[in-house]
Amino acid sequence: MKNRRSLVAANWKMHKTVGETVSFLEALQDRIEAYEDREVVVAPPFTALAAARQAMEGNKINLSAQNCHWEEKGAFTGEVSPAMLKDLGCDYVIVGHSERRHLFGETDEIVQKKTASVFAHGMVPILCVGEVLDEREAGRTFPVVNHQVERALDGLNCRLVPALVLAYEPVWAIGTGKTATPDQAQEVHSFLREKLSALFDKTIANKIRILYGGSVKPDNVDALMAQPDVDGLLVGGAGLEVDSFQRIVQYRFPGE
Ligand code: PEP
Known about the structure:
The protein is built from eleven helices and eight strands. The protein is α/β, with parallel strands linked by helices.
């Protein structure tokens, strides 16, 4: 039994209208409980956040945005600020997703500013790190994630850090159907926890939830969640369908 409450999040990316969002949430809420040992989060696109908040009853599901700017307001056409997301009732913001880093040129410096700003606005960042295939094949996974974590958390107030959610998402596993094996995930999660311990301390490191993301599906979720340092999941494709996301939320430990 892990002492961290797990977190299972669906990142919908650029999918779902307002109507589709509301239907999904109504169906999901009917099928799941308000669990004590696990937290369920959905990350709809910006356009559906307000409707999602309204459609959520009780405490069964929490709300995340997928991205934000780091400034509170200003002349940044097309951007959305953390203050606006807080105002909509967001609990979390995904920061540094590989699609933001690789398709939209987000640097480590930008990821650091967003991480700090999300915390400063009373929400929790779900900070994504992960190596591309060439880096894994060159044996550089640890130095790559080490650098990403170090840069993103630079200057962060220690008081806020225990709430952080870190997501290890090997880029070669995102949307490809290739999942990291449970052992590969555990190896990197354990490395990341050691890193957090070195940056802060062991007590803080043991509180931070480290999610795995990359082609999580109903048929691999149980084995991934059985790993001692896998504290939850960040789910893309399989989070778009109620059936598959429900099964992922209802992961089971061996023997249960
Ligand atoms: C993601 O986008 O964060 C992700 C993990 O996607 P998928 O589950 O589709 O690989």
